[in-house]
Amino acid sequence: MTFGSNDGSLKIEDESTTLPRNEIKTNGVLKSPNKNTSILHPDLVIRSKEEIPEPEALGLKEELPGWHGYVEWEQYPERKKKVQAFMKKFDFPGNYQVLNLNCLLMTRYQPPEFQLVPLPKTNPILEGVRWKQYHYALGKATKDMPAESWLFVEKEKSPDMIHVLQFPYNGEPPRGRLVETAITRNEDHFVRNHGGIPEIDEDAYFFDVAGLVNTPKRITMNELKNESLFPRQSTTVTIQCSGTRRIEQIREYPGDGDELINAPWAEGAIGTAKWTGVSLKKVIKYCGGLKDPSAAPHLEFLGADTYFKKGEVYNYAVSVPWRKVKINEVLLAWEMNGEPLPKIHGFPLRAVVFGYIGARSCKWLTRINVISGPSMGPVQQKEYLYYNSQVGKHNATYSSGFSIQDMPVSSAIMSPLDMDQIIHEGTIKLRGWAYSGGGHWPVRVEVSGDGGSIWYEVPYQKLTEKYYHAWRLWEIDLPVDAEGWLELVVRCWDNSLNTQPTFVRSTWNWDLHVTSSCHRIKVFSINKSRPNTAARLKKFEDLGIPFLPITHPGEDDLEDEEKYLSEMENRGGRDPLE
Amino acid sequence: MTFGSNDGSLKIEDESTTLPRNEIKTNGVLKSPNKNTSILHPDLVIRSKEEIPEPEALGLKEELPGWHGYVEWEQYPERKKKVQAFMKKFDFPGNYQVLNLNCLLMTRYQPPEFQLVPLPKTNPILEGVRWKQYHYALGKATKDMPAESWLFVEKEKSPDMIHVLQFPYNGEPPRGRLVETAITRNEDHFVRNHGGIPEIDEDAYFFDVAGLVNTPKRITMNELKNESLFPRQSTTVTIQCSGTRRIEQIREYPGDGDELINAPWAEGAIGTAKWTGVSLKKVIKYCGGLKDPSAAPHLEFLGADTYFKKGEVYNYAVSVPWRKVKINEVLLAWEMNGEPLPKIHGFPLRAVVFGYIGARSCKWLTRINVISGPSMGPVQQKEYLYYNSQVGKHNATYSSGFSIQDMPVSSAIMSPLDMDQIIHEGTIKLRGWAYSGGGHWPVRVEVSGDGGSIWYEVPYQKLTEKYYHAWRLWEIDLPVDAEGWLELVVRCWDNSLNTQPTFVRSTWNWDLHVTSSCHRIKVFSINKSRPNTAARLKKFEDLGIPFLPITHPGEDDLEDEEKYLSEMENRGGRDPLE
């Protein structure tokens, strides 16, 4: 029985007990995939022997000419229902599998995103097999999205990005480079996508303004860029994913491996750009203003990308309150650092919401709905919720998590790296970022070389300029006398005197969001201003053997017998006198 | 060029860039190895193109008939020197490799014991490739020891032992079973060997008493078992490796991966047996007593096993002070729980030193030397040292570590296991062990369900009997209301009011010894006495989907739209009133 395409194969569960996969990883370096094969994961498993209709019967197609990769869902409730029923026929990896014999088995191939196991050392770290299969299952309108989206990663992002999730694409730059410039280079800016990357012709592009506005309108890029209609705004804004530093929570306690694949972000899911476009407030004004501004409405953004949640299909949808728009803190942007938006960042037009979680800065904008409360789309209602530490799979509800909008004060040490072994002469240089959302800014950055007992303040000369909505980079030469494993820590104080929780444990939450606790790294200190250390290093040098890594055997003896015996005599031997 | 045996192959480094290995692991289950091939790791690498003499030229042979696997080193200094020079010709795995082009490369095959990487999930966890090659390199007198020793593991130990190091063999039993009986079954007792296992006929066996005694003697088993010469002693004694719980130190900060392979012990490197034999004090008396007891001499034990350190070769040698012997706390034992000593535990005769680190309880005893100070053998002088946390590869000396003899107060939770997800109704049953060395005994055991803030005392009815030299097992039903990830902790107080350091960090040391900090495990608590939790569990049951593991996707929605909206109304919505 074949399905979807000639190269795909569909297995009936009781005919096969293993689920072959196409291998796409090659020792940390990902080869450019053949878009029809390796990246697709076509090995779908169906639940029973019932007949599956060909996906073409769903009648899915691209919505508009010039909008490749855009399937409209929200306007077609019947289409969504049909797809929901269709999706139920498959067992996607990570599901439990219900056999027709009423016997329960876990699916046979478990991708690492759903297991209580250490993250793989590959790049991409996770593949997103489940989401690739969602797209594959629905046939030609969506099945090539994983492969096509990957081509934009290769074209638009730095070749050494850390791919935390291959599809939907999530990636961050290497740590050290991110803090070299206060404005992040576009190719190094982190990407957190929730689906495939649509390819939209600017000439064919428009977005709709609808709902509780006095004059609903369809607006083209030509109109939006017309400065006689809309004044332009350029603002330096840091965007941060609420998953930044999630890896610290994952390492301590596994959390939600539920429907949404939570990318294992490190400290690089944050970036700063000068965004240029039009304040959303001006666009609402152009549409005759709100019907009832006093009702505190919300503005819902819809994207052209396809989003899956609990077996249902959606367009990406999020919202922000009018109050945020009114103070010109929501921009509709087409330029990033003076260049057209890269496709992967939302070309031709995206929202940029200052000081909020990055998820609200909707890409590939198709529609702005003015609505009476927060969006009921799953990204707004069911995701990016911040739970009490006792909430988990056993009791989580959507209403009991609070919705992450403004981001809290946070910071990270980007150099040195965790587990570095550092030979120094009494000081270690630390570099990193500090940020606070919601219009707050970092006032003070402090570092500790002893796990958080004694704190050193970063001199103001070593902090980059202040912005209302951007990070500050910092560096400091930390006095370090001690040797061995040390815990280096950073914390930031913002202008509202907020600072960071002490430990990862203090803020652990089921969905693994907002790791804003003091950032801690372990480094091994080798202080060569100490004579014994200098002498030992010299000995390795003389032997022509590298000293690092510290876990490698040295071949020489640590102390000769004569020296040992004289030292032991000085110490009064091993035993007491009497 | 072949070397040693027909199936071994020796590679010249510039002819080959990869180092093939024989695969011995099969998905966590170890097949009985063919003793001539798979377990041996014969792929030696030599340093240069110089001619290597056949190992037979070393003239190594077994010392005595009936003593298979025993090569005497300490009586033949010239033999030791010759072997030391011979060993220098090889690059053993883990070494840096010095090419004849004066260019430095790390060896091409790096076993995991020398890398800053997570431990493998295999069983054996580590293979001990380097030590296998030491034995292989020396030719027929030692080359089969890894394979032969493994046969004793298979014969004498439980099939489900955790093999922390295959050779020299180090193994511990599964956690839960270890605390089922106050006396450990022989097949479950942990094993920490430092070399191969000699096979000695009891009829051919004797040991020598030499050095600063008035009448040096050679004593056979027949004499020792003669109750008219020596009164018998039976004592219940816990033996503990100073590496117990080392895995906690490894996980937090890597330490010495130096010449000695440090086995990644968990909480099972401890066991209790009733040992029967003769007090060493009686044997010394039989030899006419000490020449000068007031000089506080030490008693050195030599074993038949071969030990390697920094490219030199030894017989295993350790020592204890006379003071310890004088109070009848050193037993020469031939029975373990009423049975003859298993080969792997030292048959026919071993020392059992009460309350000390297990390393002093020398197996396969060949000689007892009365000497004026602690043994200068490498195990006593250069190993089992406890360093300040700032000491490491950069500055460690043997004299600056203190020599571990008496063991401190310690404890462990053996059930549940770390990362368990527990469905309960308000209490969780905890079981474990508590021990204190040096003649101290556990008086109180306390557990915490909140990381160490509130402590519950184990009721005395739930502690096993007190011994001067053995552990106590304990269990408690810990009240647990909270849900989510909790940190369960245990600590013990001994009769001297000593208790345990708080964190692993508090006691981390370069050689990763004596992990005596409060033992902490993470468990995920699911309290079904809470109505919301009970309802969610019921929902999974109704759907016929297992609830555990918690990281597996549930397919159902967490809250329906109606409930969500009414809950949000109760909460006053997401935004403030004004």
UniProtKB/TrEMBL annotation, chains A, B:
Residues 194-377 form the Oxidoreductase molybdopterin-binding domain. GO terms for biological process: sulfur compound metabolic process. Residues 563-578 have a biased composition (Basic and acidic residues). GO terms for molecular function: heme binding; molybdenum ion binding; molybdopterin cofactor binding; sulfite oxidase activity. Keywords: Metal-binding, Molybdenum, Oxidoreductase. Residues 551-578 are annotated as: Disordered. InterPro entries: Ig_E-set, MoCF_OxRdtse_dimer, Mopterin_OxRdtase_euk, OxRdtase_Mopterin-bd_dom, OxRdtase_Mopterin-bd_sf. The keyword Oxidoreductase applies. Residues 403-523 form the Moybdenum cofactor oxidoreductase dimerisation domain. Pfam families: Mo-co_dimer, Oxidored_molyb. It comes from the Eukaryota. GO terms for cellular component: mitochondrion. Its cofactor is Mo-molybdopterin. PANTHER family: SULFITE OXIDASE, SULFITE REDUCTASE. This is Sulfite oxidase.
